[in-house]
């Protein structure tokens, strides 16, 4: 709306009306009756015109506010007819309606997207009115986990399964809590958490549940598949040559027994074969022992240790032998006061393992370098990094290097990095790796 133009026209009408009233008073004073009647008619006309001029704007605004009151944003005001200032007003109303319709359309689309996403997840979600029990929203996963049909009010569950109702709906779980619930034929473990929120004068409760059993079973199944795949590969690598050699020795021995004149038994060959079988059998025993070592590390003997002291111990132990192989090794700590609460022996074992792997990766490098650095990142985490400029790790096996018994080395057991990861998990830390083939690797211990 052209506000200045509207004010100017209103001011002009008021000015005419006041002037006409003054003129009427003057004519009456001069006793000019005919002219006074004409002036009176003019005053009535100006008054009606001014009233209509002001009223039609309020009528237009009243129509718009009435539409807003009933959420009728589809109404369209004519912009091509009527006084110019009213057309400006209608243009503004239409622009507001257009903007609100666009916002509503986007909100509806976002609501549909959110609803579809929440329906697809395997986590149960429900929101309901605490006072009435009416369900505001719930996804199918919630009903499936509780083994219940869809319901509109939570008291439906109370009438069917009172214990389940008390556990899930009546008990508050401010922090995520693992509980067991009894269903028809079994008991399952779920992770549950809830929160209360306010909408106007109504209080609502949001509950989130997840079937832990299915998640754990799925993860455990995948872990066992990987573990058994690697174990099978390692065991078959040992059993196949043992079986083949045993068949050969048995065949030679059988021929020597049945036809001693034609087949002479070579004792040296027999001894060598038996020795080979013995060595491979010992290899299998060693493999079994390394497997058992995965479950040995369960408790920590935590001590406050300066990182500089930890590095000094490793340096005294390993630096001479590493430099003898023409590999430069550097230990560096960002600050002398940097300290960790760790089990020193276990973290030393992790660092020794990573450094030995770095040495192995650098064995064919002319300017081989290894760096062991410690620093504190902006998140207050202390990070120890072991760099090398060796052969790197191929991308196709990078995701498997922490799987127990997985190894790309001809003489490796595949236990070292798995043990390193377990030790870091016990310390509530992480072990990360970045590697580029033919350029080098960096392993990060994040505490």
UniProtKB/TrEMBL annotation:
Q: Which domain of life is it from?
A: Bacteria
CDD domains membership: HATPase (cd00075)
Entry EC no(s): 2.7.13.3
List where the protein spans the membrane. Answer: 7-29, 35-54
UniProt catalytic activity: ATP + protein L-histidine = ADP + protein N-phospho-L-histidine
Q: Name one GO molecular function term.
A: phosphorelay sensor kinase activity
Query: What SMART domains does the record tag this protein with?
Result: HATPase_c
List, for all copies, the residue spans of the domain called Histidine kinase: 230-447
Q: Which UniProt keywords apply?
A: Kinase, Membrane, Phosphoprotein, Transferase, Transmembrane, Transmembrane helix
What InterPro entries does the annotation carry? HATPase_C_sf (IPR036890), HATPase_dom (IPR003594), His_kinase_dom (IPR005467), Sig_transdc_His_kin-like_C (IPR004358)
Q: What is this protein called?
A: histidine kinase
Q: What organism is the protein native to? A: Winogradskyella flava
């Amino acid at each position: 709306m052209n506000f200045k133009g509207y004010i100017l026209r209103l001011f002009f009408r008021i000015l005419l009306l006041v002037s006409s009233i003054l003129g009427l008073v003057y004519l009456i004073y001069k006793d000019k009756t005919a002219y006074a009647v004409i002036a009176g008619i003019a005053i009535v006309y100006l008054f009606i015109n001014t009233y209509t001029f002001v009223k039609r704007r309020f009528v237009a605004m009243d129509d718009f506010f009435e539409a807003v009151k009933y959420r009728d944003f589809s109404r369209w005001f004519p912009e091509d007819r009527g006084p110019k200032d009213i057309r400006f007003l209608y243009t503004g109303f239409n622009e507001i309606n257009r903007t609100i319709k666009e916002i509503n359309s986007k909100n509806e689309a976002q609501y549909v997207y959110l609803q579809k996403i929440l329906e697809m997840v395997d986590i149960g979600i429900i929101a309901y009115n605490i006072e009435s029990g009416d369900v505001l929203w719930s996804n199918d996963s919630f009903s499936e986990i509780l083994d219940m049909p869809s319901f509109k009010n939570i008291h439906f569950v109370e009438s069917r399964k009172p214990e389940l109702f008390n556990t899930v709906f009546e008990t508050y779980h401010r922090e995520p809590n693992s509980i067991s619930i009894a269903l028809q034929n079994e008991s399952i473990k779920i992770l549950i958490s809830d929160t209360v929120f306010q909408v106007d004068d109504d209080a609502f409760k949001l509950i989130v549940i997840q079937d832990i059993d299915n998640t754990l079973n799925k993860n455990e199944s995948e872990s066992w598949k990987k573990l058994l795949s690697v174990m099978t590969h390692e065991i078959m690598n040992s059993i196949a040559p043992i079986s083949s050699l045993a068949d050969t020795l048995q065949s030679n021995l059988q021929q020597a027994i049945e036809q001693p004149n034609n087949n002479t038994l070579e004792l040296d060959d027999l001894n060598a074969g038996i020795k080979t079988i013995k060595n491979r059998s010992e290899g299998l025993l060693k493999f079994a022992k390394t497997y058992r070592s995965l479950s040995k590390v369960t408790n920590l003997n935590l001590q406050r240790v300066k990182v500089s002291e930890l590095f000094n111990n490793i340096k005294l132990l390993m630096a001479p032998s590493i430099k003898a192989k023409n590999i430069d090794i550097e230990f560096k700590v960002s600050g002398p006061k940097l300290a960790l609460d760790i089990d020193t022996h276990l973290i030393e074992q992790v660092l020794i393992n990573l450094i030995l792997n770095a040495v192995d990766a650098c064995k064919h490098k002319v300017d081989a370098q290894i760096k062991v650095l410690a620093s504190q990142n902006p998140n207050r985490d202390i990070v120890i990094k072991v760099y090398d400029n060796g052969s790197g790790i191929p991308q196709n096996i990078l995701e498997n290097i922490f799987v127990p018994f997985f190894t790309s080395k001809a003489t490796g057991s595949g236990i070292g990095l798995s043990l390193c990861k377990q030790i870091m998990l016990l310390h509530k830390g992480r072990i990360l790796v970045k590697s580029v083939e033919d350029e080098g690797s960096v392993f990060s211990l994040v505490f």
